[in-house]
From TrEMBL:
Function summary: Functions as a peptidoglycan terminase that cleaves nascent peptidoglycan strands endolytically to terminate their elongation.
GO terms classed as biological process: cell wall organization; peptidoglycan biosynthetic process
Superkingdom field: Bacteria
Site feature (Important for catalytic activity) residues: 220
GO molecular-function terms, A-Z: lytic endotransglycosylase activity
Keywords annotated in UniProt: Cell inner membrane, Cell membrane, Cell wall biogenesis/degradation, Lyase, Membrane, Transmembrane, Transmembrane helix
Catalytic activity: a peptidoglycan chain = a peptidoglycan chain with N-acetyl-1,6-anhydromuramyl-[peptide] at the reducing end + a peptidoglycan chain with N-acetylglucosamine at the non-reducing end
Protein name as catalogued: Endolytic murein transglycosylase
Amino acid sequence: MTETSTPPIKPEKPKRRFLRAIAFFTISFLVALLIVGAPMWIAWRGFVGPSDIPARTTVLIEEGSGLGRIANQLEREGLVADALMFRVGVEVHRKASSLKAGEYEIPRHASMREIMRILVEGKPILHSITVFEGMTSWEVVEHLKLQPVLTGSVPIVPAEGSLLPETYLVTRGTSRQDVIDRMRKAQRKVINDLWDDRQEGLPFNTIEEALVLASIVEKETGKGDERDKAASVFINRLRKGMRLQSDPTIIYGITNGEGPLGRRIRRSEINAVTPYNTYQIDGLPPTPIANPGEAAIAAVLNPAETEYLFFVADGTGGHAFAKTNRQHEQNVRVWRRIQRERGLR
């Protein structure tokens, strides 16, 4: 019987073993990358991709809110899909300590990254608060109480005439006292700037007196093209030693600025001697009777040059001005006829 011999196994060449090792580690790395990287990629796309926010909305981040609290709030309000994903994204960008409190507008379909940017930039929504010319300080405080974006109270009603009526931009949560302080500061700046450019020879000597007269002008007419003429009437009367005879001063003396009178002035009130009744006292009342706007202050400090001493309503929302009492009485008769035709008494 013939014996057969098994051929010897040839050793694997080193190059082939190296290539196999490279292939093994490459495949292992790709598998590990897929296992670890796929979720990271999904998370990243979730952070930078568009959201399901259906419409532009707002969010209010309160003072003292940390990243965790903010992330949970955003998830609770439907602005981010996953609070943890938002937290991780913010941490990766190293912006956790840069998120700012405030009220923000979030666009439709905003991504988590975009929301993060909005909170980091800290440009909150601004609300306009308008205080109208001629409002008394009491009315201003009552008006601010009605503004839902403001907080806190105003412990003391400011001095009459110390506030500048204007439109102020505020963030939600601004205190009412802060708005009052801004109005007071704005008024001082306006009056100080205008005072330096006033006409020479005006019949008053102080800023306080100018504000008193400006408040009377403000209450007498709301028409911009009349303020300097109305101011000229009171300036001319002061120069001649005539009493101002302004109805709004009587009303202020009755109401103390706490709302409208709601009726006609009685004859007994015209005849009563009070500090605010300019039919009975010489010169100016002791304080302003409202908060005049910049235009009224400017009109008093630079009045029109006229010889007018009287004015009365003309039925159009304006006034008829007169140099003499005779002309004024004629204008009064016209106004009374208009009142009768309109059923006014």
